Amino acid sequence: MSAPPKTVLEVAHAEAEAIREAVRKADVTTLAGDRARAELRHVPGLVALLSDVRVSGPIYDLPRPINEAGITRWVIENQAQALAGEALLIVSLDEAGDVAGYSRIAVWPDRSAAELAGAVRADRQNSGRGGAGMAHVFGWIFETLGVRMMCLTAALDNLRVQKGIDAAGFVRMGERDAVRPDGTIRRSVYWEMARDDWRLRHRL
Ligand SMILES: CC(C)(COP(=O)(O)OP(=O)(O)OC[C@H]1O[C@@H](n2cnc3c(N)ncnc32)[C@H](O)[C@@H]1OP(=O)(O)O)[C@@H](O)C(=O)NCCC(=O)NCCS
Asked: How far, in Å, from the CA of 119 to the mean position of ligand 1?
């Protein structure tokens, strides 16, 4: 299950409430024009996307097995969490309107923190744009949702995503046991990034 950063920030009630409100009202098309909040009509597309092990294999916090019932429940849970200001499940759509990728942002308003997981369809992988795409999402999370801290994990052998995360300037802070929904553990590389450091690095 998604876990908040190791670093614990002091967060005033007003800041936490502002983050919840930002999550509730976030316009995901400001992230990119092809994005939408995941709804039940996207379930078949998500099942097709995530049934491909090249897409879902590296991701620890997906419901498994991946099927219509499990993904329906996952979309509904995420809609409820979005209303609480605690998560956003976002799909990207291709020219035909099919689901071509997804991002899930877990938010801990009381910690002013977020975590991101996501993937793109196999035909869009190895695009050479993964690093820039990830950096764009990280910046959007800091500036649109207003959190001051992000953490990320990746499988020890997922060198491709590790490279993109390092390139964005996230700081490696050892390893972490990421817990899958079935309770099994995936040993992971662990990173954090503070918003102030992000702004300095990207000269915002
Ligand atoms: C993660 C993901 C979005 C990245 O997008 P992408 O278009 O495939 O990424 P890129 O082609 O830009 O590759 C990113 C970098 O990794 C490098 N790379 C690719 N394969 C690599 C490998 N086996 N070893 C080391 N580096 C590798 C690329 O050269 C690139 O570096 P560069 O920007 O310096 O050229 C996409 O691969 C994906 O959806 N993967 C499956 C799900 C996943 O792993 N999600 C992350 C879970 S935390």
From this structure: 10
Q: What is the CATH number of the domain that holds 153?
A: 3.40.630.30
Query: Ligand 1 centroid to 108 CA: how many Å?
Result: 27
How many Å is the Cα radius of gyration of the chain?
16
CA dihedral 98, 103, 106, 109 (to 10 degrees): -90
Report yes or no on 25 lying in a domain.
yes
Report the DSSP pairing between strands 35-37 and 185-194: unpaired
Tell if the pTM clears 0.85, that is, is over it.
Answer: yes
The runs of H, that is alpha helices, within the chain are 13-25, 43-50, 53-56, 68-83, 130-140, 159-167, 195-201
Helix, strand, or coil here: 154? Answer: strand
Q: What is the per-residue pLDDT across 76-128, written as a single tens digit (0 to 9) for each?
A: 999 999 999 999 999 999 999 999 999 999 999 999 999 999 999 999 999 98
Q: How close is the Cα of 36 to the center of ligand 1, in Å?
A: 23
User: Where in the sequence is the domain holding 72, given as residue range(s)?
Assistant: 13-201
Candidate from 46, 163, 165, 187 with most ligand 1 atoms within 8 A of CB, to mutate: 163
- For ligand 1, what atom is nearest to the CA of residue 161? 1
